[in-house]
Design goal:
The complex is a heterodimer of chains A (222) and B (276).
Chain A: H1 9-26, E1 30-35, E2 38-44, E3 53-57, E4 60-66, H2 68-88, H3 96-113, E5 120-126, E6 135-139, E7 145-148, E8 151-154, H4 158-168, H5 175-187, E9 198-204, E10 212-215
Antiparallel strand pairs in A: 1-2, 1-8, 2-9, 3-4, 4-5, 5-6, 6-7, 9-10
Helix pairs in contact in A: 4-5
Chain B: H1 25-31, E1 50-52, E2 55-60, E3 63-68, E4 72-74, E5 77-80, E6 86-90, E7 93-100, H2 101-122, H3 128-140, H4 143-147, E8 152-160, E9 165-171, E10 177-180, E11 183-186, H5 190-200, H6 207-224, E12 240-245, E13 248-251, H7 254-270
Antiparallel strand pairs in B: 1-4, 1-7, 2-3, 2-11, 3-12, 4-5, 6-7, 7-8, 8-9, 9-10, 12-13
Helix pairs in contact in B: 2-3, 5-6, 6-7
The chains are: A alpha+beta (222), B alpha+beta (276).
Chain lengths: 222, 276
């Protein structure tokens, strides 16, 4: 009987993290930023039907990058969790923080106990009554949660995009200005992105009970 | 045995592909043990159940009107004066309820969630026909309760975005689903309301005419049926009237309904009908 080779736990974790990071880096990035009327989410996504950004609940949106089937499973689970929680208690009791924590628990668990980590990075956004009440929770493949302010970038090449976005971002921008800045940051100096390459959605602070709205067609011409 | 239904806050609701409930919220509740328990078949209820009464749906040129009085009764007493029997199901449809109030409200709540859950999960809304069939399934699954006297009869109306017209669906307690072409009224005063609408209906009514007709129908129903509430001018409680058209579900303000009632009462007074 052959003995398995001993592999240091540090090495196991490093290998898994590398594997997950490589998978995520292959995909296109996605940014979320606050503007004067709520939160804008802009993803580079040539598909019109396989969404990266979706509605979870009245004021909560989900965005994911990486392996589609993996983050779509998480999206579906989030909708189920939120709808069941709202049904059992009240619509007001559904919040992004607890959902982000659940995602973190699950991703952390998969990262340490399963053979293959999930190759996803997700964002749970919630629009509040005022800009100070908005929340952007960035959850990594290993279950790390980050509570981010104003802007959040997930996916491949996020550092370069982040630098560009931070340089151009101004608090309290209009929706059009925010879209322009986000698209420019995603594209970088050498490329231009058109409406066909983008998937854009907003969480509107004012308006209907369901704050999530997709922007399509003319709303995307910059 | 007391079955305590507890929502699992601590785990993501994930399912293996074989067990996945899909975009069906009711199936998800069953999978998660949250579905309301159905009582075993037995005798009829030993207490008076709250009942909602008259509801009306009328198709007009641009869509469909849903209206309902506000009274809920328990036996011979008035249980509630300002009940909402007309509710939006989603942006393009509404549901009005007659029958055992507690279960009807729960059914509508579940139906609303069902439609929203489907829309979010699948990324697009169900067709109007699909929504009507969903509701039929819910009424059917309520049959054992209906046998014990807790009958719930919804009236479903919506704007069909594909056909670009208003459509009305009615149900019987066994879950039978029937499409009405022009109008319908249900509940204890439904017969009187239906007759009134029948006499005043024609193809191509405007929204204002259809609202007037609905209000007239509810007035006549309240005139003949003790369980149907008329306009309450003292407390300022008026029927709920909603239009569902290309603009979606819009509930009329109390002021608009009040104005329409006042002009109706004036007309009735002039024709000397108030004493009959």
């Amino acid at each position: 009987m052959s003995m398995p080779f001993y592999v240091a736990p540090e090495q196991v974790m490093k290998d898994r993290a590398d594997y997950a990071r490589k998978g995520i880096a292959r995909g296109r990035a996605l940014v979320a930023l606050q503007f004067d009327g709520g939160v804008l989410i802009v993803a580079e996504n040539p598909s019109k039907t396989l969404h990266k950004v979706s509605e979870i609940y009245d004021r909560i949106a989900f965005a994911g990058v990486g392996k589609y089937n993996e983050f779509d499973t998480l999206r579906q689970a989030g909708i189920r969790h939120a709808d069941m929680k709202g049904y059992s208690f009240s619509r007001e009791d559904v919040d992004a923080r607890s959902l982000a924590n659940l995602y973190a628990q699950y991703l952390g668990n998969v990262f340490t106990h399963e053979m293959k980590p999930m190759e996803v990075e997700i964002l749970v956004c919630e629009v509040g009554a005022t800009a100070a009440d908005d929340s952007l929770y960035h959850v990594l493949y290993d279950g790390t949660v980050m509570d981010e302010e104003e802007i959040s970038i997930i996916g491949g090449d996020s550092e370069a995009i982040g630098t560009r976005l931070k340089a151009a971002y101004v608090a309290g921008m209009t929706q059009e200005a925010a879209l322009q800045v986000a698209v420019a940051a995603l594209a970088g100096p050498e490329r231009t992105l058109t409406g066909d390459d983008l998937e854009v959605a907003v969480l509107e602070r004012q308006g209907d009970r369901r704050a999530f709205r997709r922007l399509t067609g003319d709303a995307l011409t910059i | 045995m007391v079955l305590l239904l507890v929502f699992d806050l601590m785990n993501l609701p994930l399912f293996s592909p074989q067990n996945d409930p899909g975009p069906d919220f009711a199936a998800l509740l069953r999978h998660s043990g949250l579905a309301p328990a159905v009582p075993a078949p037995g005798d009829t209820a030993p207490f008076d159940v709250r009942h909602g009464t008259t509801i009306v749906a009328i198709r007009y040129a641009d869509g469909v009107i849903l209206a309902g009085d506000r009274r809920a009764t328990a036996g011979h007493t008035i249980a509630h004066r300002a009940m909402d029997k007309v509710m939006p199901a989603d942006k393009w449809s509404g549901v009005a309820i007659a029958g055992a109030a507690g279960m009807a409200v729960e059914m509508v709540k579940l139906f609303q969630l069902q439609l929203e859950h489907y829309e979010k999960s699948e990324g697009q809304a169900l067709s109007l026909e699909g929504k009507a069939n969903q509701l039929a399934g819910m009424v059917r699954s309520h049959l054992s309760m209906a046998m014990q006297g807790f009958v719930v009869v919804p009236l479903f109306a919506g704007y069909d975005v594909r056909r670009q017209q208003g459509r009305i669906f009615t149900y019987d307690p066994t879950g039978g689903r029937y499409e009405e072409s022009d109008f319908h009224a249900d509940g204890s005063g439904g017969r009187d309301a239906r007759t009134t609408v029948k006499l005043g209906w024609r193809e191509g009514l405007t929204a204002t005419e259809a609202v007037e007709l609905a209000i007239r129908a509810l007035y006549e129903a309240a005139d003949e049926d003790s369980a149907t509430g008329g306009p309450d001018l003292v407390r300022g409680i008026y029927p709920i009237v909603a239009t569902i058209s290309a603009e979606g579900y819009v509930r009329l303000s109390d002021d608009e309904v009040e104005a329409s009632f006042r002009s109706l009462i004036e007309r009735l007074g002039e024709s000397g009908r108030s004493s009959s």
